[in-house]
Write a structure and sequence with these properties.
By secondary structure, the protein is mainly alpha-helical. It is built from 16 helices and two strands. About 75% of the residues lie in helices and about 0% in strands. A hairpin with a 2-residue loop joins strand 1 and strand 2. The chain is globular.
Length: about 325
């Protein structure tokens, strides 16, 4: 069993390397030695966990044509990840983040102007290659996904410092800005590999649940991790008037509203000190915001698990299950 698992892992890593090959081919193949090429080298020089490409390739295994369409699937996975990277570049500009994954961010190293154009450039390259390779259906789906991501980000921006924002408002925004690309990765893999519409829609829904869990888990980090451990400023969202699920869950209780509304109103007027932020954190925990967020993660994990239970029991399904279990237990 160990030898089989190791072989499967090696095959998966080989596929990820193929995705990275296509990322370089799509993004920078014609720009080596230029200023644009230098920026793109930095963009592609630090890979994350490649969760979305992995999901796309794993979901494709449910289809009858996954092996014969392997190269096309790897190219689609590269397009999904490049879209994700473009969104991260733009996020760092908005957040004025000097670092990304422990290295200088594109806007931190080259300035905001170059970063804006770098993000736009990646999206343009994805669109170009979609047309070049006649991936018309996939292009329509991915373009709609970018639209949903933008709508989610705009919705979040509109809600900044709004003391009346609700958990439902926040859920609507994160379905766009975070979950949409997870959902699309799963659907594209299934669709391209020839899955029926029912299986493709189930996997799309699974991806959305996973993306929502991913965002909720990220929301919790401010309340469960130190700045040193995470390598980033804690409670930056709160400072910026973005009230995440633990805060909003605490606000749904009378004692939470009484404790947090004055802090939130003051937050809109000035930069809060560390003692005030610390007090906010304690009140969110005391009023059940963290506990209820964990419960929501478990609830979405159960919904996602029900979808997996309804699908064919193949090795890739068990890998997806392990991804789900790991995210639930982090």
């Amino acid at each position: 069993m160990t030898e089989r698992n190791n072989a499967c892992t090696m095959m998966e890593e080989s596929a990820v390397e193929r995705v990275r090959y296509y990322m370089h081919k799509i993004a920078e193949n014609s720009f080596a030695g230029t200023g644009t090429g230098a920026v793109l080298d930095d963009v592609l020089g630090s890979f994350g966990k490649m969760i979305r490409p992995r999901l796309l390739l794993l979901c494709s295994a449910f289809g009858p044509h996954s092996k014969e369409k392997y190269e096309r699937l790897c190219m689609l996975a590269a397009m999904v990840e490049l879209t994700h990277l473009a969104s991260l570049i733009h996020d760092d500009i908005i957040d004025e983040a000097p670092y990304r994954r422990g290295k200088p961010s594109i806007q931190g190293k080259y300035g905001k102007d170059a970063a804006v154009y770098a993000g736009d450039f990646l999206i343009e390259r994805v669109h170009y290659w979609q047309v070049k390779e006649q991936l018309i259906d996939a292009a329509m789906i991915l373009s709609k996904t970018v639209e949903d991501m933008c709508i989610g980000e705009i919705g979040q921006a509109v809600c900044r410092y709004d003391v009346h924002v609700t958990a439902d408002d926040y859920l609507k925004n994160i379905k766009g800005k975070t979950a949409a690309l997870f959902s699309t990765a799963c659907k594209l893999g299934a669709m391209e590999a020839g899955c029926g519409s029912d299986v493709a829609e189930k996997l799309k829904c699974f991806g959305e649940y996973l993306g929502i869990m991913f965002q909720f888990r990220d929301d919790l980090l401010d309340f469960t991790s130190s700045e040193a451990a995470e390598g980033k400023e804690i409670h930056k969202d709160f400072h910026d008037g973005i009230y995440t699920l633990p805060v909003l869950m605490a606000l749904e209780t009378p004692e939470g509203r009484e404790a947090l509304l004055p802090i939130m109103k003051e937050n809109a007027k000035r930069n809060l000190g560390s003692e005030e932020i610390g007090h906010m954190e304690k009140e969110v925990i005391r009023c059940g915001g963290v506990k209820r967020t964990v419960e929501e993660i478990h609830r979405y994990a159960a919904l996602a698990g029900e979808i997996l239970d309804s699908l064919e029991d193949i090795p890739e399904a068990r890998k997806i299950r392990r991804m789900l279990d790991k995210l639930e237990s982090m």
